[in-house]
Amino acid sequence: MKKVDQSITNPMTTTTTTLSTILPSQTSDSLDTLNPDTFNGKLTKVLVVSAFGALIGGSFQFGYNLGCINAPSQLIIMWIKKSHFLITGHVLAQKKVETIFAIIASIFFLGGMIGSFLTGFISNKFGRKRGLILNNIFIFIGILFQASAIYFNYYYLLFVGRFCLGISCGLATGLTPMYLCEIAPKNMVGLFGNMNQVFITFSILFSQILGLSQIFGTSTKWYFIFIFPIIPMLIQLFILPFSPESPKYELIVSHNIDNAITTLRRLRNEEDIYDEIEYLKRESEKIKMVEKVSLKNLFKNDLRWVMIVTIVMMLSQKLSGIDAVLFYSTSIFKSAGLKGSAPIYGTIGIGFVLFFQTLISTWLIEHPKFGRRPLHLFGLIGMFFASIALVVCLIIQSQNLSSQVKQIGSYGAIVTTIIYIVSFASGPGGIPWFFASEVFDSSARGVSTSVACFVNWMTGFFVGLIFPIANGYLKEYTFLIFIVLLGACILFVFKYVPETKGKAVDEIQNEMKKMRKL
């Protein structure tokens, strides 16, 4: 293959090249046999840098802002108490301070619900890349309000800051996987899609490390944690303006053939991209023949079932109890006999396990012997049995038994927690984020991703709201709820979710119809 000619203009004339003039003549039979599996590509400089630009300002920001508030939580609570006294002259009761902190933490999810709901509109109106760039407006406003809250000792501003950051992260959870899957060669869609989860888990771990007392976890430094997001924001703004837009967006949504050719050549670093362009052109022509996909259309006719499957895939991630397991991790380590700051380091260790297993799953997801469906099922089944074992271990801990027996339960809880985290990272952690990008064509991808991400954020919000209440009543039996939900998700995925790896959208949707009839 020849190296890319970055321009599509003929150097001997000033005539702009169009698709009709550069495509070799093909018969209708040859076009009918075009197979997206043949559009396999390689990692190129432009592809890697563009993906990194999207990930650092999208997935990284989401994971970081999700996790950064946990490590310094006691320091933030103390500051809120001080801030309230400076504002009103009254000392706030501890229960009320903790309630204010809980609202500050949860308002992030409300912002995320709004941001994710806007994904479809933003991605189609401005494009995937431009949408990510514009998303930094919310990041900047969020950082500005957080910094102002700390500078003026006015904790009310934290509500606005966390809400704006939630909007930006909600947008990022939809725009980032969409952009990654649309710029990736067909043989790397799973790899690029799962990098979204890799960056999320890494940034959660990174935020936990920054929260250590040796770094920013002190009464004089904790506010640096809230200002840090400006660094990935600036990195993204340095990279993305020079990166190509999604060629699928350029051709199928914007109907700009010249831009699609240029961007695809840059991404593939090859001159011969005509078959892939022709395939996209045919997809575009097919889309023009059908009714424009809106939010209402997603739940009509054939698309309704595809959307339901996509939603259940998202629910299988959030209803698995992953947030509850991460919540329990510190108390599990304490019950196992770890003293002082050791349980905190144990929780960070869980973060390392989550991150490295996600890296491994990124390799497995494109391995010839694996696929999306088996990895997702393997993860759900592993979480199901690990949850059962965890309930047994927690019951042993709570009973009036000998210290030796209770110790077995404590260490068993640690082992089952690790098994649970490994299972989650093997498939359910990453696959649902890019599932919509594989089962919907470009005309429906924006709005379907928006709905899927909205469901994820909404479920996360309600799980976070309900879990502490349920835990107060059910205690060590709380995970029985997640065991039942995991069992239901396993049955649904096994019966109704097809393999999507390396398949065209039409092929996947037809398989879904067949599986539904069985």
From TrEMBL:
Signal peptide feature range: none
Alphabetized SUPFAM superfamilies for the sequence: MFS general substrate transporter
Keyword field contains Translocase: no
Gene3D superfamilies, per the entry: MFS general substrate transporter like domains (1.20.1250.20)
Entry's Gene Ontology cellular component terms: plasma membrane
Domain Major facilitator superfamily (MFS) profile, residue spans: 51-501
UniProt superkingdom: Eukaryota
PROSITE patterns, per database record: MFS
Molecular function GO labels: fructose transmembrane transporter activity
Membrane topology: Multi-pass membrane protein
Transmembrane segments: 46-64, 100-121, 133-154, 160-180, 192-216, 222-242, 305-330, 342-365, 377-398, 410-435, 447-471, 477-494
Pfam families: Sugar_tr
GO biological process terms on file: fructose import across plasma membrane
Alphabetic keyword roster: Cell membrane, Membrane, Transmembrane, Transmembrane helix, Transport
Subcellular location: Cell membrane
Family statement drawn from the similarity comment of this UniProt entry: Belongs to the major facilitator superfamily. Sugar transporter (TC 2.A.1.1) family.
PANTHER family in alphabetical order: FACILITATED GLUCOSE TRANSPORTER PROTEIN 1, SOLUTE CARRIER FAMILY 2
Stated name of the protein: MFS domain-containing protein
Source species of the chain: Strongyloides stercoralis
Lineage, broadest ranks: Eukaryota, Metazoa, Ecdysozoa, Nematoda, Chromadorea
